[in-house]
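Observation: inputs received (chain + D-glutamic acid).
Thought: call the complex predictor directly.
Action: predict_structure
Action Input:
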Amino acid sequence: LNPDTFTAHVDWPIGVFDSGVGGLTVLRALRERMPHECFIYLGDTARLPYGTKSAASVQRYSLQAASALAQRGVKSLVVACNTASAVALPVLQERFARIDVIGVVEPGARAGCRLSRSGVIAVIATESTVRGGAYQRAIAALRPDARVLTQACSLFVALAEEGWNEGPIVEAIAHRYLDPILTEGSPDTLLLGCTHFPVLANALRKVVGPQIAIVDSANTTAVEVEERLRGAGLLRAAGASAVQFLATDGAERFARVGSLFLGETVRPEQVEIVDLGAPQA
Ligand code: DGL
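Observation:
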């Protein structure tokens, strides 16, 4: 299908992509919110992590991933990766003007601002997301009085992809990253600005204690996608749901670790390996 000329159809799936399995935490919320929708999920596992790469590389990878989904026919496109949302959303929206492209940064910022009473919000994310300042800008736009503390937590992505989501090693690493921002500004809200981090929530809770609200963008993104589809007359009111999984490498690994993120079993034979091909102009 040619995404420059097609008109989205209500029965088409919603496209979702991430650098790996992290975006499955968003897919899970999307499915819970919209039980009649079909989805195509693409994890660019061959090139993970995005979070330590330059903006130019992340934009190129994101264009390729989005293009692979668009060519299959998707009625909307969810960028279920904070790094890609933070540095590539405008590029994607421009390139795929006929598809509603929705990122996770703005919905995440909204969730954080809604929960925080004091207005001191700690954002943990990948290096590229923090460096680009997208969360800082999104929060400032919603709540100009907020104080935003940021910390890049690159190792969390590796821990989550390894399926190490709890235990003393995870907690020790979390202390190393979080102790400085906890003492620096006493945030009342910890915003998980990376779709890999929700699986570490139990360990993070132990480290930050019971008082700090922990929030991510999955649910607010799902609400936004639903509202936009309804507004466009593209929300399915009935019918069975289905998910197609695509990855750029490692079906077995994607299935094994992805099951943890999705909260249900994914089998390797359900995962189609795709080659994202030549860079898009
Ligand atoms: N899941 C991606 C995000 O939300 C980060 C993982 C990566 O570094 O590729 O930012």
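Thought: report the result.
Final Answer: The first strand starts at residue 14 and ends at 18. The CA atoms of residues 36 and 239 lie 5 Å apart.
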